[in-house]
């Protein structure tokens, strides 16, 4: 490649002005002091382009391609693996002005939506129609639909509804060539040649910039009951979840597990009374819906009584108010509490076939303690689909050889067991070594070749997956 | 490309013998007299390779690549668009000895299975565990899992469970290079880089030969009730389906609609008594499951009585025996009855957003009658996901200009409405002109480039999609 002029952020912003009437450019001054979101490197480019239309995004991308300027697609800046980090000389391409809900098809339970709408805003717009999204996750207030597409987000409901890939019917994107790729089908049955929008789903910005999608929806089930249960292990937690899934009058809405160290430290920090819990137990949070709030509570209490002995429950509380339910959920969703004690604690997001979880956690514990005294992990996650979040109870970042040992400890056996080293956060920058070690080499080569095909100059999210 | 030696079927079979101990070769003599399945061209190659392992398939493919011999992947020969047709000098690569069910994970509700297992055989193996597949279709006795992956099959349950793409967790395939692509995850949450197995799902044999998959399963719901209802239009049928979907004690298992001409001619052929049906009505077949057979029937009868007036039903029967239920289903599933009167009748498989179905069928009727007197269509299909099967009440094949007029009549407006010109049958050879006319040109180019990347010599299923 010949050498290209490089732009400083101060040169770049004026060069982008006027490319398209629906394109707003923010330069270093406008971005100064903005919160960078989950990754301190997110705004380092110092220049952000905010298209308000697909055509404006295409104009920006075409210019960047012609001028060899790298583009970093961004959504709600809630990514956890550095997939949106940037460098000076690059342009941030933000979806935040692509924020229109284009059409709600109430009878069909589908919605056409621009990529920059947050999950929470979409849910709020759907609620008056009795509808909601089939995917839900803790960062709903900031995560955008486009970002969720790009990381193939999973969240709380994946055990029943699958992940974003299973909810997206149609998709429009601007490719690195500047061309608009349009496949806005709103039907579930399509067998009309290769389904190339799948490259954009979970593509982490490597193959283009998602501008709009058609998503499946489902009816809101508003009558809920929540319980917090002491469990000995994942097998017992899964038994409870399975029983609730099959209950004729209930629908299981969440099954979230927290292992003992997470429970102990988080409850202590929050002043959460665990005197009812048999010491050293893990916690299982279950949420169900029913025909009425009373029915949900009654059926849940009965179902838990029925399964109590077989599941060897170590105590339990059914929330008596929505406030109490919220406090149960906070134990699970305020999961970053450990960063106060352990800044930059190395964290992981794996999935394992659920029946192998207990053995996996036992082996993990052993492998970490073999690294050195006191090496322990906080473990919690979406038990019914086998997705565990894991954080080392130690400050980060780790030195290279220690980092490698910890990663080996976390990832050992996952590929052979049919799990994944990244369940729902993506690869980004942070999981580069895991990708290189735990993805089939044939697939890695092919991913790189497809990247070269779509983005021969690698202007889209350079340095990120595929490597 | 330099000229390559071409093989006759009689030369080719001996040349393939001995490539791998787990590879069986059938030559022209062995194939003579075999039923070609749904397409008379399926066995024209005259040579079939039957690997019993992934490695044997890889050996065959590597040889074919080295010798510039085309490979036509085949499953149960039940494809309806000529996706498996072949020519002399090509090799049929059949999955029918890849017929092992490798592991049933009962608690996780997943199965690892080789590609050549038929849907019916898989369902039979799962039944003792109380499990079944989340996809079901009429050709279950011959359709293989690998073929269903390759066409992204949909069937009866897609309105709730989605299509094959939504059921496949893991996949292994041999690429045109002869390399083995392995991604046998058995978890639903994976965000570990580009998900390239999606190219093989719905890939119609263009990108490789699927050898094994991991599939999601669901619990069997064995207590069923079936009704046949007279309906004025799709809107009313969808109202009934929506009501049954929301019934707290029932689960909707099927909602299949047959338009009046289909009803009239098929009932007459079968001697099916329709004296209870208001003349000229369409028929809606619904199947539900409940806690017991009695509960299913009782709740279904009550629910139909409740919705009767609002849905303006034109008569109805609830099956009183499994025999009667089977006769109801035969009206829908023996859908090829019209080929007796109209050999090779041109047939189509489209999907439309359900709320647009009535207008679509009205417009279709008008467009066909504008072609000439008596041009009418049989219309029937999976109403809840908007998938219509359409057959012209005229013998085929049509001359080119008439064919173009009919295709225009069938496909007009589908793309702009967010539907698909091929819902679940694929593109194959037969839907080539529809693909060229109704797929985004940007996507067509990209599909061709990916094809060139994976299969530069185009040895895999040449002449089929992508064109």
UniProtKB/TrEMBL annotation, chains A, B:
Keywords from the UniProt entry: FAD, Flavoprotein, Oxidoreductase
One Pfam entry name: FAD-oxidase_C
Record bears the keyword Flavoprotein: yes
Positions of the FAD-binding PCMH-type domain: 40-220
Cofactor: FAD
GO BP terms in the entry: respiratory electron transport chain
InterPro entries documented for this protein: FAD-bd_oxidored_4_C, FAD-bd_PCMH, FAD-bd_PCMH-like_sf, FAD-bd_PCMH_sub1, FAD-bd_PCMH_sub2, FAD-linked_Oxase-like_C, FAD-oxidored/transferase_4, Oxid_FAD_bind_N
Source taxon at top rank: Bacteria
Keyword Signal annotated: no
Gene Ontology MF terms in the entry: FAD binding; oxidoreductase activity
Family: Belongs to the FAD-binding oxidoreductase/transferase type 4 family.
Protein name stated in the entry: FAD/FMN-containing dehydrogenase
Organism: Rhizobium rosettiformans
């Amino acid at each position: 490649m010949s050498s290209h002029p490089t732009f400083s952020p101060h040169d770049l912003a004026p060069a982008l002005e006027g490319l398209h009437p629906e394109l707003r450019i923010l330069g270093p001054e406008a971005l100064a002091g903005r919160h960078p979101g989950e990754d301190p490197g997110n705004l380092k480019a110092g220049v952000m382009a905010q298209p308000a239309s697909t055509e404006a995004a295409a104009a920006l991308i075409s210019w960047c391609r012609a001028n060899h300027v790298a583009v970093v697609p961004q959504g709600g800046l809630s990514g956890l693996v550095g997939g949106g980090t940037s460098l000076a000389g690059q342009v941030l391409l933000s979806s935040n002005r692509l924020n229109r809900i284009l059409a709600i098809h109430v009878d069909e339970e589908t919605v056409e939506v621009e990529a920059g709408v947050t999950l929470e805003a979409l849910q709020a717009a759907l609620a008056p129609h009795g509808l909601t999204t089939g995917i839900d996750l803790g960062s709903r207030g900031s995560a955008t639909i486009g970002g969720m597409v790009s990381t193939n987000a999973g969240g709380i409901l994946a055990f029943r509804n699958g992940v974003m890939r299973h909810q997206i019917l149609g998709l429009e994107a601007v490719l690195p060539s500047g061309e608009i790729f349009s496949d806005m089908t709103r039907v579930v049955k399509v067998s009309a040649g290769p389904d190339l929008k799948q490259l954009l789903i979970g593509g982490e910005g490597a193959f283009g910039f998602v501008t709009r999608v058609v998503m499946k929806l489902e009816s809101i089930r508003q009558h809920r009951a929540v319980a917090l249960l002491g469990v000995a292990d994942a097998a017992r937690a899964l038994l409870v979840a399975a029983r609730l899934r099959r209950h004729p009058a209930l629908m299981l809405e969440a099954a979230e597990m927290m292992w003992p160290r997470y429970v102990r430290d988080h409850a202590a920090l929050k002043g959460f009374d665990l005197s009812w819990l048999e010491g050293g137990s893990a916690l299982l949070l279950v949420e169900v819906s029913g025909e009425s709030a009373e029915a949900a509570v009654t059926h849940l209490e009965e179902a838990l009584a029925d399964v109590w002995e077989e599941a060897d429950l170590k105590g339990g509380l059914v929330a008596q108010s929505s406030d109490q339910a919220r406090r149960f959920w906070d134990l699970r969703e305020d999961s970053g509490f450990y960063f106060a004690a352990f800044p930059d604690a190395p964290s992981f997001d794996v999935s394992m076939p659920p029946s192998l979880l207990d053995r996996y956690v036992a082996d993990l514990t052993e492998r970490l303690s073999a690294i050195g005294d006191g090496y322990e992990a906080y473990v919690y996650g979406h038990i019914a689909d086998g997705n565990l979040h894991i954080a080392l109870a130690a400050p980060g970042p780790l030195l290279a050889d220690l980092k490698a040992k910890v990663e080996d400890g976390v990832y050992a056996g996952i590929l052979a067991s049919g799990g994944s080293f990244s369940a729902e956060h993506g690869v980004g920058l942070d999981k580069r070594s895991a990708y290189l070690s735990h993805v089939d080499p044939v697939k890695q080569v092919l991913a790189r070749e497809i990247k070269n095909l779509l983005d021969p100059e690698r202007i889209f999210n350079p340095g990120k997956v595929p490597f």
